[in-house]
């Protein structure tokens, strides 16, 4: 490889020219490829199809015909709000004479309003007021806490409100937001339109619902209050209610009446209360459930845009509109990923906000100029770094891959890794150029080849270990980043030297390669190697104790900043209406259970389970097929024959109507008759549980709404749902159940994140440790060498766990990456230390010489990489922000470990092992027979590298 840059083609040109020509030639081709790059951030596709939880969810969605849905609400909405029906008409279109809807959105499959649900319940003889209560926490909310003032409170309403705000802040630490009392929305519409919307014809005139009466039933009140993370049944809500009811106004009495203390005490007991009542009322706001079509599911951004446009045409103000659901979060995430690269919402002069990734790169450029002190050399180093990233990212669409929330950090990572290797090569070139400009490129490559190859390969191993993860974004990151590392190695050893050979920079001054301070620092570490080593080990051990509080987080909504629109929408929906995340409990009745219980009894059994589930404090509401049927009382034991016959007729009629609904599709989302046998497996608190579904089994679905913005432990929730369901079904033979939906998927993904972290890191550690053992010819030395490489990860992740910060999917990938980066500096330092030992230096002298050679490059690389990565911190997408700041911390920790901990170990026991290994090699070499040409057999390190790396040749 050393002679590559000395060879010429038949026309007398250097091979470096052809390397540069090839780089220029493929550039336009790769530009065309990059234009086809796509994004995919669907959390449900993270797990492989053969994962047990993915299988259950896939079967569940297919069986009940469940599609992605958007939950939409707006401030001030109620059951009499005409805009709900207008929105439905705009999204679905108007039916023509043949019953086919025309003019709707192709992205929407179905729209369900609370008025539709109540109407359907009333058709099955459910009282309208009861129907309204059954939709609580699903499509009907309770809104803000409503305050009804007394006469005394109304006279001084402003003072009363301010006193409530002040006391809540001082005593409870809660900031209250005051809103005016609820008022029905009134619009000037044509009477015929109002009749068509409000008085939708029912099957019977008696089934028509007076929605105005339902809204009018909300008790009168004077104001409403809200606070962050408001939940109607929480302890904090009770405290605020008691605080409001305790507000009293002291009686103002003339001085003449206060003749004695007894009269004053009597007056104090008659202070008028300011608040009459505090309550939540069902009916406002309302939510519209919008189900996406296959087209909408394929393009969430377009579907959300279509819903926004329809809402605007319906008269819903944009500032009062709130949407939630997986399509909304997915579209917002894709948009924010794009904005992290280029956000046109900010002006060009706010470039640090317009493009945090490009700003990070510009900071790297500035630091490279500062460190290398050569304009041309800095330009070549940066050109190679960005060109490597350009080529590596092009591999993604070239192989049919897609970008995702994890892969978006790969460009920055590859830029800094290539920048690291290039700075090392540039420093080697400066040393060689100070001696001889003609041979500088060749000698720089000879010096850089061994440590750069080992560093790149070990980093690639660390990244490739991520391919063992069951999560597809992590596997993609591991695959493409490891490929990028190999491309980076080729660019560092061929691209940069070729550019240097064609456009060489000026030779460095003697002051630029002066390393006396670094050598002095190395001698100080050698003198205090025991103290330094023990201090580092203590810091390492104390930090690792923090893993006791290690936990993971996979909620996509947590990647958005609190100020983002999607977060504000989610908070409004969960505080005022219902939880965003669905969790489904599927009850299975086999043929034996169907014979032992009639249809109505099965309805009531499902209702009983649903009521127990709804009692869970983290569930805002639930709905099942039982909600669309009136409650049926069981027959008494002494029932007459007439009662039994009438009950049998009612049971048969109910079952007939439900079966007909299954054919039309209206009941399909709650009841499914299995048409094939399926064997599934589900994880529970007691281990894996097998669930067998046979053909003909009845599957009843209970869907519950759970908040996603809280710190709820989904594992505990799933366990509670299993226990509640089993407590009811244990007395009914032939029944079983499944808990599925988004929440169990989140739980499984959390487990997969933890498994990925352990497996990938363990594999990377094992492979790199074996490489170190082979390189140092000593298993013990190889293991000791891994301590400085483990220290950055143990300290940084340990401190994160100490602070109770959860590890997300973006944070997880940094562990294996950091291991590879830490090994980079370790290999460079070890290479130079071994050369010093082979030249006859003592351990202390070899440490000083190694730091003199590697210290400047390691410091320059870490500063450029760490600071440029820290510039990602202002990114609005928290995944990118956390990745940047965490990688910066890991790079800094790796630098400190490599220039403090590792030299101390080399001056102590690790150095002794390397010296002993070198002596064994010398003894073995003395007894090795000569080759036929009279030369000794090839030693462990190439003689050429020894000669060029000698202090006599390179030091000033």
> Separation of termini?
27 Å
Overall radius of gyration: 36 Å
Count the DSSP helices. Answer: 35
Instruction: Compute the average pLDDT.
Output: 82
Topology, number of strands: 17
The secondary structure category is alpha+beta
Uncertain regions spanning at least 5 consecutive residues: 190-206, 253-261, 931-956
Main β sheet profile: 5 strands, antiparallel
Q: Considering DSSP H and I runs of 4 or more, what fraction of the residues is helical? A: 55-70%
Strand content: 5-15%
Name the shape in a single word. Answer: elongated
Can you walk me through this structure?
The protein is α+β, with helices and mostly antiparallel strands. It has 35 helices and 17 strands. A hairpin with a 2-residue loop joins strand 14 and strand 15. Helix 1 packs across helix 17, helix 16 (356-372) runs parallel beside helix 18 (410-435) and helix 28 (742-776) runs antiparallel to helix 29 (779-802). The two termini are 27 Å apart. 45% of the residues are buried. Residues 190-206, 253-261 and 931-956 have low confidence and may be disordered.
Short recap of the structure:
Helices cover 58% and strands 10% of the residues. The chain is α+β, with helices and mostly antiparallel strands and 956 residues long.
What would the keywords be for this entry?
956 residues, alpha+beta, 5-stranded antiparallel sheet, 35 helices, 10% strand, elongated
């Amino acid at each position: 490889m050393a002679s590559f840059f000395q060879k010429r083609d038949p026309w007398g040109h250097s091979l470096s020219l052809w390397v540069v020509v090839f780089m220029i030639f493929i550039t336009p081709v790769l530009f065309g490829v990059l234009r086809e790059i796509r994004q995919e951030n669907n959390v449900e596709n993270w797990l492989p199809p053969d994962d047990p939880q993915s299988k259950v969810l896939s079967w569940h969605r297919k069986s009940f015909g469940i599609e992605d849905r958007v939950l939409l609400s707006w401030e001030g909405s109620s059951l009499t709000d005409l805009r709900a029906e207008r929105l439905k008409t705009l999204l679905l279109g108007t039916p023509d004479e043949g019953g086919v809807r025309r003019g709707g959105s192709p992205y929407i499959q179905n729209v369900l309003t609370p008025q539709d649900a109540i109407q359907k319940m009333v058709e099955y003889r459910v009282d309208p007021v009861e129907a309204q209560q059954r939709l609580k926490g699903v499509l009907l909310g309770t809104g803000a806490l409503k305050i009804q003032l007394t006469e005394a409170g109304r006279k001084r309403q402003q003072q009363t409100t301010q006193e409530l705000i002040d006391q809540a802040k001082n005593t409870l630490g809660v900031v209250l937001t005051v809103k005016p009392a609820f008022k029905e929305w009134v619009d000037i519409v044509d009477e015929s339109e109002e009749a068509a919307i409000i008085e939708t014809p029912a099957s019977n005139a008696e089934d028509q619902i007076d929605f105005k009466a339902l809204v009018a039933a909300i008790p009168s009140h004077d104001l409403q209050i809200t606070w962050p993370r408001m939940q109607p049944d929480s302890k904090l809500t009770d405290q605020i209610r008691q605080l409001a009811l305790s507000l009293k106004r002291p009686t103002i009495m003339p001085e003449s009446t206060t003749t004695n203390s007894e009269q004053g005490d009597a007056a104090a007991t008659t202070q008028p209360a300011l608040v009459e009542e505090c309550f939540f009322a069902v009916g406002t706001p309302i939510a519209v459930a919008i189900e996406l079509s296959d087209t909408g599911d394929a393009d969430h951004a377009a579907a959300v845009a279509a819903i926004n446009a329809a809402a605007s045409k319906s008269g819903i103000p944009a500032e009062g509109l709130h949407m939630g659901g997986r399509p909304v979060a997915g579209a917002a995430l894709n948009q924010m990923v794009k904005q992290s690269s280029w956000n046109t919402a900010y002006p060009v002069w706010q470039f640090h906000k317009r493009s945090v990734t490009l700003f990070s790169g510009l900071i790297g450029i500035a630091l490279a100029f500062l460190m290398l002190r050569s304009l041309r050399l800095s330009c070549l180093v940066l050109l190679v770094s960005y060109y490597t990233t350009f080529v590596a990212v092009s591999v993604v669409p070239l192989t049919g891959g897609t970008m995702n929330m994890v892969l978006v950090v790969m460009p920055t990572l590859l830029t800094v890794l290539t920048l690291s290797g290039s700075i090392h090569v540039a420093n080697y070139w400066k040393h060689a150029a100070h001696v001889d400009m003609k041979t500088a490129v060749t000698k720089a490559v000879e010096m850089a080849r061994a440590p750069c190859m080992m560093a790149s390969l070990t980093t690639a191993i660390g990244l490739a270990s991520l391919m063992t993860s069951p999560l597809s974004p992590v596997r993609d990151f591991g695959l493409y980043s490891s490929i990028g590392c190999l491309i980076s190695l080729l660019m560092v050893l061929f691209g940069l030297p070729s550019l240097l050979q064609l456009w060489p920079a000026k030779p460095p001054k003697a002051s630029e390669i002066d390393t006396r301070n670094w050598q002095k620092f190395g001698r100080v570490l050698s003198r205090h190697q025991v103290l330094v080593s023990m201090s580092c080990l203590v810091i390492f051990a104390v930090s690792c104790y923090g893993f006791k509080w290690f936990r993971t987080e996979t909620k996509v909504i947590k990647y958005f900043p609190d100020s983002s629109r999607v977060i504000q929408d989610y908070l409004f929906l969960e505080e005022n209406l219902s939880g965003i995340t669905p969790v489904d409990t599927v009850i299975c009745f086999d043929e034996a259970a169907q014979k032992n219980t009639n249809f109505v009894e099965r309805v009531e059994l499902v209702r009983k389970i649903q009521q127990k589930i709804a009692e869970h404090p983290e569930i805002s509401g639930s709905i099942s097929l039982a909600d669309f049927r009136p409650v049926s009382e069981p027959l008494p034991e002494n029932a007459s024959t007439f009662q039994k016959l009438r009950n049998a007729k009612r049971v048969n009629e109910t079952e007939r109507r439900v079966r007909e609904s299954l054919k039309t599709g209206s009941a399909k989302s709650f009841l499914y008759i299995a048409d094939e046998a399926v064997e599934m497996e589900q994880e529970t608190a007691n281990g894996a549980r097998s669930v067998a579904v046979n053909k003909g089994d009845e599957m009843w679905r209970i869907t519950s709404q759970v908040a996603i913005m809280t710190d709820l432990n989904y594992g505990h929730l799933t366990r509670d749902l299993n226990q509640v369901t089993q407590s009811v079904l244990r007395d009914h033979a032939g029944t079983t159940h499944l808990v599925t939906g988004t929440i169990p998927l989140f739980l499984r993904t959390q487990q997969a994140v933890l498994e990925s972290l352990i497996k990938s890191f363990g594999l990377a550690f094992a492979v790199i440790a074996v490489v170190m053992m082979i390189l140092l010819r000593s298993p013990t030395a190889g293991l000791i060498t891994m301590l400085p490489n483990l220290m950055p990860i143990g300290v940084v992740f340990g401190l994160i766990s100490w602070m109770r910060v959860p590890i997300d999917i973006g944070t997880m990938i940094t562990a294996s990456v950091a291991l590879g980066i830490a090994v980079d500096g370790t290999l460079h330092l070890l290479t130079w230390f071994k050369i010093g030992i082979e030249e006859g230096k003592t351990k202390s002298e070899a440490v000083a010489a190694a730091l003199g050679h590697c210290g400047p490059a390691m410091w320059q690389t870490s500063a450029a990489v760490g600071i440029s990565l820290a510039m990602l911190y202002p990114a609005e997408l928290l995944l990118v922000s956390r990745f940047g700041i965490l990688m910066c911390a890991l790079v800094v920790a790796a630098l400190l470990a490599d220039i403090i901990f590792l030299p101390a170990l080399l001056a102590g026991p690790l150095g002794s092992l390397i010296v002993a290994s070198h002596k064994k090699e010398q003894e073995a070499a003395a007894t090795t027979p000569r080759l036929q040409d009279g030369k000794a057999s090839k030693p462990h390190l190439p003689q050429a590298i020894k000669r060029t790396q000698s202090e006599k040749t390179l030091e000033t």
